[in-house]
Amino acid sequence: MKNIEIEYDFRLDSMCGDPDTDSLKLYEFHSVLWNQKLSNSEILNLSILNKSYGRLILKTNLTDNLSSDRMCPHFVGKYNGKLDGWLSDSDKERFQHKVRTIGGHIVFPAHRKNGFTINQARGVNRKISDRFDLTLECVRRFYKNEKSPLSSVLDRYSNFFEIFRDFKGYIDFFMLQDFIDTNEKIKFSLPFDNFNRSALPENKEEYESYMNKTIELIDKRNKKIMKRMNYASVQHCI
Fold first, then answer.
1. What is the pLDDT of residues 24-75, one digit of tens each?
2. pLDDT tens digits for 150-182?
3. Residue 234: which pLDDT band, with cuts at 50, 70 and 90?
4. Using an 8 Å Cβ cutoff, are 215 and 94 in contact?
5. Please, are residues 128 and 149 in contact by the beta-carbon 8 Å criterion?
6. Residues in CB range of 25: below 8 A, 6 or more apart
7. Are the beta carbons of 150 and 126 closer than 8 angstroms?
8. Phi/psi of residue 232, each to 5°?
9. Helix or strand (DSSP H, E) at 124
10. Helix (H, G, I), strand (E, B), or coil: what is residue 6?
């Protein structure tokens, strides 16, 4: 059983600057974490394909190939740097580090299917701007057969979401419990008005609040990841 270093910054393991593309350590962590039993008692088995598609890929036994995705954007240096003056240099680095720990990553289907992948679609859609809380709201609506800005792309990859049965199954499998409340409603990192307002922080206070909430959520998920791996290690030794 591999040890999961929950504070490891996967930027240190990337030659191209994008750990989701080439960090073998990140993909090794994914392959350990998500080799798990699903709610229907099937086991999702993952194995790493070494840059068979020009990047690292996770092959699965139950659905299409998967790839890593950083869940939460830090926005540093993005949008012509228009938000950069709202955070101190130390906060920028702290934020960039945290989102590149294992708790800041998830997997989605890797290959295009009649359009953008989920990873690509949530990045280019200005109603989402790569934010995971907004992505998760779209996933929640998918399971409820409700429309969202990502409906078309999520529908194309319905076979991936179906292996988790329902929204709770998806949440539990990927250890996202802290991203929702007891009624399975999303805990948004910025004010939410049904995708009408900008997905970006609109002022310094919002950016700082978004950063703090995001770091808190990733820290909580990292602790869940460590707890799962410690439990798995104990079971492996029995």
1. 999 999 999 999 999 888 999 999 998 666 799 999 999 999 999 999 999 9
2. 999 999 999 999 999 999 999 999 999 999 999
3. very low
4. yes
5. yes
6. 8, 10, 13
7. no
8. -65, -35
9. helix 118-124
10. coil
